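Throughout this review, each integer encodes one residue's backbone shape. One record appears below.

===
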Amino acid sequence: MNLRNIYDSRRIWKIGLISISILLVAVFIYISNNLVKDLAMQERDRMEIWADATRRLATMNSGADIGDSTAIGAPVMSSDIDFLLRIIEDNNNIPVLLVDDLGNILLHRNFRLPEPVDSMGLGALSPANEKFLKDKLQSLKNSQNKIDISIDAATTQHLYYEDSTVLRRLAYYPFIQLAVMIIFIAVAYFALVSVKKAEQNKVWVGLSKETAHQLGTPISSLMAWTQMLESYGVDKSIVSDMDKDVNRLSIIADRFSKIGSMPDKELTFINEAVEHSLDYMRNRIPKRVMLTVNTDPQNNCGVMLCESLFEWVMENLTKNAVDAMGGEGKLTITVNNSAQMAQILVSDTGKGIPRKNFKTVFNPGFTTKKRGWGLGLTLVKRIIEEYHGGKIFIKESEIGRGTTFCIEIPKAGTP
């Protein structure tokens, strides 16, 4: 797999995992909601039985004595009354209110009242309890938890009830579990990202310092060779050009040696820093690339810079822009200053970058080139953000029209 496809594959896997997670949560919530509905129906059936027991007791009390067969067509036995009372008393988890047609509370059960009351709810209500139950009655009138109890042709009572504590807990349980899952996944994700970032940092530091170390010996030898060539009478212009390239290698080695430790920074004016960073590239970019640098001498601010690393940033962005334009086009570098930031815009007329890659271009291994490791922009981001406390991002890009990178570095003295 090409390096430039690694992050596309990761994105697909992330989208797939998120989609599967959402699907599983949706299925779980669906099943839980069905369980809640089933339990609600069972509670409704229990309340229907409770209401029927209340109706039978009321009918018995209004028209029959124990053993009398005239009221409902059959003898009323004490065992029947005991059975009906047991049905009513067995309800110890569903809050119920029994009221008449005028809204007077005849019975209440299983409510957590502000003040103590008898267990059957048949005693006189204190003002606080009465207000509580009336407020509860008003709220229950707007719900579907109501059963009408026809006592006789002229009398109807109304049974209102709330969902049991178990049912309410079960209704909230899926969402509580979902919140716990989200928190757990978030913590696990950030922990993995932190570990991964720490490992990447160790690799970066080790690779950079080893590169600087390996370059040190041949650079020292090349310096000695240029001195020897000069003593042998070789053309001084040739030796001078070789010296420039050897010094260039020495600068590169110094840059790599600074990775992994906070570099020393000095107060530098941003206009001069930009101009100086382009000195080496001016004569090394194709002649068909028009390089324009726009600075404002009246708005030249100071920033704390490690110049050698900042030059590395500008060289990387310049090379990328030239590659994106295929060696032909316009490269414009503009310096702007806001109240707290020095801003450098690097704009090209190249092939552009898709919006979906605006962030992934800074990831290690991302590249659109046939050659290269895709580390240039990663180094650029690290130098600007970690070593200089700034920002770098793609300000705008359009396919076939070009791209603008934006660098922001705090002005000197800015907290």
